Structure formats: C-alpha cells, structure tokens
Automatic annotation (TrEMBL):
Gene: rsgA
Function text: One of several proteins that assist in the late maturation steps of the functional core of the 30S ribosomal subunit. Helps release RbfA from mature subunits. May play a role in the assembly of ribosomal proteins into the subunit. Circularly permuted GTPase that catalyzes slow GTP hydrolysis, GTPase activity is stimulated by the 30S ribosomal subunit.
Signal peptide start and end residues: none
Cell location: Cytoplasm
Protein name, per record: Small ribosomal subunit biogenesis GTPase RsgA
Keyword DNA damage among record annotations: no
Presence of keyword Metal-binding: yes
Note accompanying the cofactor annotation: Binds 1 zinc ion per subunit.
One GO cellular component, as annotated: cytoplasm
Residue sites binding Zn(2+) per the record: C281, C286, H288, C294
Transmembrane segments: none
UniProt cofactor(s): Zn(2+)
Domain EngC GTPase: start-end pairs: 109-256
Enzyme Commission numbers on file: 3.6.1.-
C-alpha cells in the first residue's frame, strides 16, 4: 500500500475529487509519460494507463496529462488502467511550444519549487537563468538557483555580480555531488510532501543531483565527455522520483530553447527589478526605450542598472508581448469556432 500523501495528496485535492463525475474510481499521480501511455502511482501500486477516446481526441496537447498531474482512472487487471478524468491543474510549469507562436507545453504540474540548475563551467549563462526564473515566478512556483559543480575552479565574485539582481527573488546555492555538505543543504530545501522540478540545459548535472539527493542511483547518468570535459545529456523524459523522508523530485530533459509563455508581460519589470526605477518615470505608461524623464534609462546612464540586464528585459518583454497577443488571438478564434459549431448543431437539431 502506497501513502499518496508523500506524493503530495492532501485534503484539498480530496475535496476537488469529490466534485468529479468519477469520484468513486481510483486516483493517482502521473510519474512518467510515454507518448500515449502513462505511468500512474496509486494507492495500490504503479499502473500503466491509457486515455479514454474522449480524452485523447477531445483535448488539446496542452490539456493532456503531464508529469505531476493527478488523474482518476479505472483499474483493470493487476497493473493496468484507463484514465477517465484529470483534476484541475495548479502551479504548472510551462514553456512556449517549440515551433509555435502561442502554443504552450506543460512540463510538470503541482510544483512547489523549481531548482534552476546551472553548471559552474563554460555553460553558465545568467540570461538562461533569467528566462527560467520569470516563467517559474509566473506560475507562483518558488525558484531556487542551484549552481552545480562547485568543486571546479570558478570566479565566485564574477558569478555573484552576474546574479545579484536575481538574488532578491530566489535563494542561490553552490553545490557539488563531491561535496556532501552542499547536497545536505540542498535537501533541506525540500519539505515533506513538496514537489520540486529540476530544469536546465543538457549536461549541467540534474540527474546526478537527483541521485545524490536520493543517496542511490535513481536515474541513469552519463560520464563526462572526454572531448569536451562536460556532462553529456542523459534524461530523455520527465520522470518523478520519491525522496525518502522528504518530497518528490521531477527530473527533466535538458532544453536548448525555453520560450516564454507569459500571460502578463508587464510582470517582467518586477521580476528583474526594473520596477524599482520604473516607478519614478515621468510618464506612467513609459516604455523605457526613449521617453523623456525615464528613470530606467537614467539608472543605466549612471551605472546603477546593468545595461545587459536592461537589454535582457527588453528582449524578454518583446517575446512575452508577442506570445500574449498571439495567445489572445488564438483563444478568440477558438471561441468563434466553438460558437459556429454550436450554431450548426442547433440548426441540425431544429430540422
């Protein structure tokens, strides 16, 4: 018998389930997604589940279950089942779907914290950190910057200078799998029943960190590449791992591109500390580009605001605005189409 409370089940979720059409069926949490097959952790064990036809063909890709989702399913045989419903998502980490203007891809749901993992080698990129952080904050998830491979030689002062504008938004930790005390410190950030997702580029050591936190080889890892001296990408899927005496970890494949899927582009100013200056601009609708009396531009000229941070803010804002506008138009078209379908059905019914 599995105690689902250790996987994040609670009274609030139970109340939500009692309002569902299939409240008398079993429930569980999606731990791995294999295209059309889902591994679901339930009270009676691990089940291999498929979707009903209504779910598979009646929902968009974004609405289909992802790792972390709580689902209701009909068990059959010893370890098989069919997913018939899904509880409404909360705190879902998303990104813009690759190759689209407005589509979203769900990475993991019911996430409490996100470890943004960066390697303290040539792969460190503060611009990537900003990109992950703003999307994580958008979903009301708590970000923690995990600077991995702290056993390597690196310029700590330079790193801290690059991330100082982010330190007020998230905890910054230096860790290494070769320094057990740093892994202990990282583990202390995970409370019992909490779900933590690890995000970052390929080769930064996410899977190795999961294994170190678990104290065992829970996930497959690769050796350091002899040609580049960097870790090689191992994870090919999102996978949930239970941390003994603590919470749940979700490892994710490394990403080359993490497109923003923000519904509120104006929130970026607060996330990147631009709002500290923007509040003093002459005009309330100041775009901080070339307006007179712009306190943001003044802060750049006197050196109190980094020009690189400002440029990153403008780039992310343009991307977020583009997504938000495109998503609005997409929803508008979907509503118009749904209305048209309803009218056609009504006409047929009246014949």
């Amino acid at each position: 018998m599995i105690n689902l409370n250790t996987y994040g089940w609670n009274d609030m979720l139970n109340q939500v389930k009692q309002r569902a059409a299939y409240k008398n069926l079993a429930h569980g949490r999606v731990s791995i997604v294999h295209k059309t097959c889902y591994e679901v952790i339930a009270q009676n064990g691990l089940f291999q589940c498929e979707l009903t036809g209504n779910m598979m063909f009646g929902k968009s890709d974004f609405e289909l279950p992802c790792v972390g989702d709580w689902v209701i399913f009909q068990p059959f045989y010893e370890d098989k089942g069919v997913i018939v419903d899904m509880l409404p998502r909360e705190r879902t980490l998303c990104r813009r779907k690759t190759g689209t203007v407005a589509g979203k891809q769900a990475i993991a749901s019911y996430v409490d914290k996100a470890f943004i993992v960066q390697g303290l080698d040539d792969d460190f990129n503060v611009r990537k950190v900003e990109r992950f952080m703003v999307q994580i904050l958008e979903e009301n998830i708590k970000p923690i910057l995990v600077l991995n491979k702290a056993d390597l030689d690196f310029d700590k002062y330079e790193i801290e200078e690059q991330v100082k504008h982010l330190a007020g938004r998230m905890l910054v930790l230096y860790v290494s799998i070769h320094q057990p005390q740093t892994i202990t410190q990282l583990k202390e950030c995970i409370a019992e029943g909490e779900t933590v997702v690890l995000v970052g580029s390929s080769g930064v050591g996410k899977s190795s960190l999961v294994n170190a936190l678990c104290g065992k080889a829970a996930l497959l890892t690769s050796a350091i590449s002899q040609s580049t001296g960097k870790g090689r990408h191992t994870s090919t899927r999102r996978e949930m791992v239970l941390l003994d005496g603590s919470g749940v970890l979700i490892d994710t494949p490394g990403v080359r591109e993490f497109g923003l899927a923000l519904d509120d582009p104006d929130a970026l100013a607060g996330m990147l500390d631009i709002s500290d200056y923007a509040g003093s601009c002459r005009f309330k609708d100041c775009e901080h580009i070339n307006e007179p009396g712009c306190a943001v531009l003044e802060a750049i000229s006197n050196g109190t605001l980094s020009h690189k941070v400002y440029e990153s803010y403008l780039k992310l804002r343009r991307e977020a605005w583009h997504f938000s506008a495109s998503e609005h138009e997409k929803r508008k078209r979907d509503r118009s189409f749904s209305k048209l379908v309803a009218e056609v059905k009504k006409r047929k019914a009246n014949r």
